[in-house]
Design a protein that fits this description.
By secondary structure, this protein is mainly beta. It contains 5 helices and 29 strands.
Length: about 500
């Protein structure tokens, strides 16, 4: 390549990797590098003083937290070399990949728009309560948790005073992670809220307040004392943290910080090394773009291990665990499609849905990828009852100009009972265009023995959407779409 030997390329390999994986110039287009990303990097590396013109929202909080280096982390002249390398080597346009062949028509599921609807739809959390045959859905406008019956009719609501984005169940308790601000802010108004599901009426009890934006909460006994502990992903923005909350005898929690960094999206608690102690698998975004394992060493101590790291524009958005090749080891299903970092963010060919197979010894290997612009959530279940795992995925940043139906994709597993190959066929349904899907859950909603799907729509986002489609969402689009499985 013409730019292989530029001094900036060598400097980037030395300095940029101190904070994140080394980006390739082709990850972003030239305009984004020169007008958005590199100016921002001048500030966060201390090469230039942070501007006071509103470029950074909540600037006083960042200054108070010593977010900006007092001395440049990169010599200014070297930074200029790095900037020249990326702007010169970057393409005018980023490849969005070849068009994917997607079959429209999905008789396995019958779509039903839930009768209960908020205007405009703003539903960042949906959860199927299979035991009660209910749907739990958060409403970001009313800041409530709504309870819908199996047909999507409103049964009741609990005002939370915050925006619920995560829910962990433990016995009779629901632990709710509330984000505070849906859009990036440093203002610490995130919360952890407890609901005793056996109480009448349901009364939300704030456990922790004044948190960075919370993205996820998980529950489990991490220290073996018989009391429930919690893991809190306080995603934040530029400031955030990952913590475990030690359950106390009085019913309260003591917070213990594991990772004082922003961007932790989700945590799964499992004993990955079979030593009898629950470990933590955590997906991190915000330029770190890493899958992390925190190995439980007992006594409330966790040892950090990097599973993998990707470039800053990777856009991690979520993950879950499943055994795809039926070897008894937990594989990882991941989505990377967050595409709201800049004022204009082109679709990227490297965004999609991915499977990392567990190879033992706490190692995971990339084994399957399906391109999906804006991939945001994915779940793995044997939806068609043929003995292997299929995948349902939702996009929050689909290509609404040319392929709006790809906002929801169903990947049918074509392998048979004896096959270990990862062979999936993408399908969608016509009603996939009725919402902008930010949340997704699977479960047996109607008690007939197969897994149904629910999707939640949040239509307000400052990214390009055709006016006609946006009007459809606003006037008629559901807050919740039910996809009722017809297998049984």
């Amino acid at each position: 390549m013409a730019h292989e030997n530029l001094p900036g390329r060598k400097a980037a390999a030395i300095y940029c990797v101190l904070c994140h994986a080394l980006p390739n110039p082709s990850d972003l287009d030239r305009r984004t590098w020169s007008e958005e990303l590199l100016p921002k990097m001048r500030y966060v590396t201390g090469v230039a003083a942070a501007p006071t013109n509103g470029y950074f929202r909540d600037l006083p909080r960042l200054v108070a937290a010593d977010y900006f280096p007092k001395k440049p982390l990169i010599p200014p002249a070297v930074f200029d070399q790095i900037a020249d390398y990326y702007t010169q080597a970057a393409p005018e346009r980023v490849s969005s990949g070849d068009p994917q062949s997607i079959e429209v028509g999905l008789p396995l599921f019958r779509p039903e728009m839930a009768p209960h609807r908020s205007a405009p739809p703003r539903t960042p959390l949906v959860r199927i309560d299979a035991g009660q045959g209910m749907i739990l859905a958060s409403d970001a406008t009313s800041q409530s948790l709504d309870f819908l019956d199996g047909s999507g009719r409103l049964l009741g609501s609990v005002p939370l005073g915050n925006i619920a984005v995560s829910l962990a169940e433990s016995g009779r308790q629901w632990y709710i992670g509330a984000i505070g601000h849906f859009f990036p802010r440093e203002e610490p108004v995130g919360q952890l809220i407890r609901l005793n599901r056996a109480a009448t009426p349901l009364r939300p009890e704030p456990i922790l307040s004044g948190l960075p934006r919370v993205s996820h909460v998980a529950a489990g006994d991490l220290n073996g004392d018989g009391r429930e502990d919690l893991v809190l992903c306080a995603f934040g923005n530029y400031l955030g943290r990952l913590s475990w909350l030690e359950g106390r005898a009085d019913g309260g929690f003591t917070e213990r910080v594991i990772l004082p960094e922003p961007g932790c999206l989700r945590c799964e608690i499992r004993d990955f090394n079979a030593d009898g102690l629950p470990d933590l698998m955590v997906l991190q975004a915000q330029a770190r773009e890493s899958l992390l394992l925190f190995v439980n060493e007992g006594g409330g101590k966790f040892r950090r291990q990097l599973v993998y790291q990707r470039p800053p524009s990777w856009g991690h958005s979520g993950f879950e665990l499943a055994d795809f090749n039926r070897d008894g080891l937990l594989d990882v299903l991941i989505t990377n499609g967050d595409n709201a970092d800049f004022n204009t963010s082109p679709h990227k060919a490297y965004h999609g849905v991915r499977i990392y197979l567990n190879r033992g010894g706490l190692t995971w290997e990339s084994a399957w990828t399906a391109p999906m612009h804006g991939a945001y959530r994915a779940v793995a279940r044997d939806f068609d009852g043929d003995g292997d795992l299929d995948i349902a995925a939702a996009s929050f940043f689909a290509d609404y100009e040319t392929a709006p139906q790809a906002g929801f994709l169903y990947f049918e597993n074509l392998g048979d009972q004896g096959s270990r190959a990862l062979n999936f066929k993408p399908r969608t349904l016509r009603q996939a265009v009725t919402g902008r899907w930010i949340s997704l859950d699977a479960g047996d909603l109607d008690g007939d023995g197969d897994d149904d799907l629910v999707l939640g729509s949040l239509i307000e986002m400052p990214t390009p959407v055709p006016d006609k489609l946006k009007g459809l969402w606003r006037e008629k689009g559901p807050s919740v779409l039910i996809l009722r499985n017809q297998t049984r």
